[in-house]
Amino acid sequence: MEMQPELCRVEDALGILVGKWKPIILLILLQNGTKRFSDLKRSIPGITQKMLTNQLRELEEEDIITRKVYPQVPPKVEYSITEYGKSLEPILVAMHEWGTAHTLHKMKKSQQTLFRIE
Amino acid sequence: MEMQPELCRVEDALGILVGKWKPIILLILLQNGTKRFSDLKRSIPGITQKMLTNQLRELEEEDIITRKVYPQVPPKVEYSITEYGKSLEPILVAMHEWGTAHTLHKMKKSQQTLFRIE
DNA sequence: CGGCATCCTGATTGATACTG
DNA sequence: CAGTATCAATCAGGATGCCG
């Protein structure tokens, strides 16, 4: 395939995926399709409300997810992955697979270090 | 495949790819195998020497590229992609392909906006 | 419940100048 | 040629508090 640096479109995908919590949010929505705000928050240990809102807004802005508000008390807001968002799955899978192999690579590296020290 | 959020290894790949100039550097080295510093700089419009050095160091630290210094005057330093670094190619290709499609998506979106305005 | 507004900190990036 | 050093600017991320 043609992938000249001048025609590099890698940044587009990277721009959408970059954000401390976006990959995990997308993985959850890819697995579940739809989740409400509080469910997401509970599924992602350590995230603050601000950051969850923030990352969701950015993903929504890119049409990767949709936001549905149920006008009721207490409020209920559901987030869903879009068809377009689902198209990111191959990238996330590729990254996950690479990351798994990367773990092994790091283990090998630290073992080599141990050998050198001894 | 197994891709539970708790077992998410996506961040590893993302961490290596994130950096304003890393993807373009990797694409160039994947295509050329080896390039010297000045060639890289010329191939990447807008990058400063500092940032090129910076990003190369980080990639080297992760064993994605290697740095070979020729002790001569004027200095010559060559950067090459490692076998390990080549394993990132599927991710970059997947992102590039997605980015290309993304361009079309954005075009459609702006057209819809135009229709709504008229 | 699901936000938003404010303030704050550290990391990232950049401009510029200098060097072996 | 291939850097390093310094300083400045920008930005992502986080802590906290208030609100309908």
TrEMBL record, chains A, B:
UniProt keyword terms in alphabetical order: DNA-binding, Transcription, Transcription regulation
Entry-linked PROSITE patterns: HTH_HXLR
All residue ranges annotated as the HTH hxlR-type domain in the record: 8-107
Domain of life per record: Bacteria
Classification via Pfam families: HxlR
Key word Nuclease present: no
Protein known as: Helix-turn-helix domain-containing protein
UniProt organism field: Psychrobacillus mangrovi
Record-linked Gene3D superfamilies: Winged helix-like DNA-binding domain superfamily/Winged helix DNA-binding domain
Transmembrane segments: none
InterPro entries: HTH_HxlR, WH-like_DNA-bd_sf, WH_DNA-bd_sf
